Amino acid sequence: xxxxxxxxxxxxxxxxxxxxxxxxxxxxxxxxxxxxxxxxxxxxxxxxxxxxxxxxxxxxxxxxxxxxxxxxxxxxxxxxxxxxxxxxxxxxxxxxxxxxxxxxxxxxxxxxxxxxxxxxxxxxxxxxxxxxxxxxxxxxxxxxxxxxxxxxxxxxxxxxxxxxxxxxxxxxxxxxxxxxxxxxxxxxxxxxxxxxxxxxxxxxxxxxxxxxxxxxxxxxxxxxxxxxxxxxxxxxxxxxxxxxxxxxxxxxxxxxxxxxxxxxxxxxxxxxxxxxxxxxxxxxxxxxxxxxxxxxxxxxxxxxxxxxxxxxxxxxxxxxxxxxxxxxxxxxxxxxxxxxxxxxxxxxxxxxxxxxxxxxxxxxxxxxxxxxxxxxxxxxxxxxxxxxxxxxxxxxxxxxxxxxxxxxxxxxxxxxxxxxxxxxxxxxxxxxxxxxxxxxxxxxxx
Length: 446
Hints:
Residues 207-358 form the DUF58 domain. The protein folds into 4 domains: 3-58; 65-169, Immunoglobulin-like; 172-196 and 237-442, 3-Layer(aba) Sandwich (Rossmann fold); 204-235, no CATH class. The chain is 39% helix and 26% strand. The chain has helices spanning 3-9, 14-32, 34-58, 172-183, 221-227, 262-279, 305-314, 325-335, 351-367, 378-384, 391-416, 429-442, and strands at residues 10-12, 65-70, 75-76, 81-89, 95-101, 114-118, 123-130, 136-140, 143-148, 154-160, 164-169, 204-209, 231-235, 242-248, 256-257, 260-261, 283-289, 296-300, 340-345, 369-375, 420-424. The strands form 6 sheets. The protein has a 6-stranded mixed beta sheet, with helices on both faces. Strands 1-10-9-5-6 form a 5-stranded antiparallel beta sheet. Strand 17 and strand 18 form a beta hairpin.
């Protein structure tokens, strides 16, 4: 093997320096006690021989260790994604190894390593999880293995070229989770509350047993007499309704909570809602707005339409400017001709910020069923539950209470103007948005 390569791959372990220090200390003692000096020479000779044996063993094979990385074609934003590593030991003896995968810089993990013991000619698989918090391209580097024999004086760095780029998309893991429950009508299993149906369409579906909360007007008395139990007619929801997710991409959506920006919470939920709407045979669409450019995906009913929405959401980004709600009104009038359920993801921190946009929200609500979704500041909520013991803490808690009260006033004011609202913690956004969608369908409002 090339001496330069050997030099580059050789890393002396802590054990090497500890033993060398011990030999040096023995030589120092031999300066004062001559008998110890002879022992020091024997120890040094043995140390050199063992070091040579270790060097020969660890470099006895050119391609001694190899590695493979198995990464999904795309990662899911905000979720734990499983990465697999396959490491093969081609030595004829067992080794201890430290596996260092060069993970993308976005994670800022600088102490990543996996310890392992590999037997002779053995292949092992290792897994770890990564949770991205930004959409975009993530570059993985090489797989590095620091291998050493049982002697442990030398660590040989063996690198496997494994560079690859993986895109991070809006949370398709969350989308699939809710899709599974929506298909099997088990959304209540993941915290979606059961909505009592107030009215129904005239499209008959099936006869089923009466359960508490069913509309008594739907009781089928003939079927009840035959079954000797209360039976009711079940009707299908109205279909082919427009469900438009409208996302504010202005500066108010830049605020981070638990690693994710509000924009990413909105994007992940928009993907979930769009997918469930398509499963329910509704049409799903997407509109983004800020102060200049906007993205519009017109509502369609095809199941493949979710791919277009996902690609559009992947490219959405926010800026530090205030959003133009008048531009949103114009965009909806231009691209959405049918009365639709409009889920508007934005954020109002103060009552005055909502008042400035209220005329535009009222204009949208005249043409569509508007649901304004904005976020609780969970950090302020934590402050409210802390006990204040100093003047500074009292001031801070008072300000937090003021902002929390303003949020409640915003909800009240919007409801008084006939605008539906959702005030939610960021982590509970998907569940609360699905609840609202199902509730409005159950009430026949869309």
